[in-house]
Specification:
The protein is an alpha/beta fold. It is built from nine helices and eleven strands.
Amino acid sequence: MKFGSALPMIAFKHPSELKDYAQALEGAGYDYTTLSGHFLSTEPSRYPERPAPLYVGPYHEPMVTFGYLAGATTRLAFMTSILILPAFPTAVIAKQAAELSILSGGRFILGVAISWNPLEYEAMGADIHTRGRRLEEQIVLLRTFWTEPFVRFEGRYHKVEDVGLNRLPPQPIPIFMGSGTDEKVLRRVAHLADGWIPNGDPAEPIARLRGYLAEEQRDATGFSFTGRLPAAGDDPAEWVAEAKRLQGLGVTHLAVGAPAGAPPAQALAKLATVRKAVGEALGV
């Protein structure tokens, strides 16, 4: 099992704080860190039905941020969790992801999803109504860009004629998909993804996803499943019990969530305590 924890969603004011946080995660034994948040911010109260941090920001840009942190760490891997892939030109993400993988020595996982914010899609010149179908085609094209120096591809949303990165990543870049749990999206995950980032508890849908993987003639043992462990409370037995439950479900990547609203130093101290207690109990 791999242990991960997110960088704070709201951007740090100073680069040194960002670097210190990532280095502290690495020093505490975390295997990867994630970065969530939107690309653009919206004014407070624009979406009163949603928590303000989900749309107000300000946010770090993940590819630039991870490039900076790759040079400040040696072992820590980086995952977008998630990048709103259909809002971006596919060739741009292919280039950025490949370059990040090269510069970090393969320490990058591309986590993608479709998101919900129509204003963000509009501002980025993308059609929110086709985001699911576009994402499916994008994943196919991304893998082509990463394995062929020059590409010929024609689909519903892309036409590529004998151009490419001509600088390939050192190894395949895993693509994890974040999603809900209805049949349509889980079948998309089973068909296209290397790993799954669930919205919510994976206990019930993980069994269905394994069934869909089997229908795709894919071996679930080579597939990655993520699960969330909140670093809440002060009882290590509760953390260990939840981690063992998720491990029993087949979770391969355990995302430990910092206490909500905790300042960075306090959050890091709790994350280190959880990593030590759970790691010792699980032998990892």
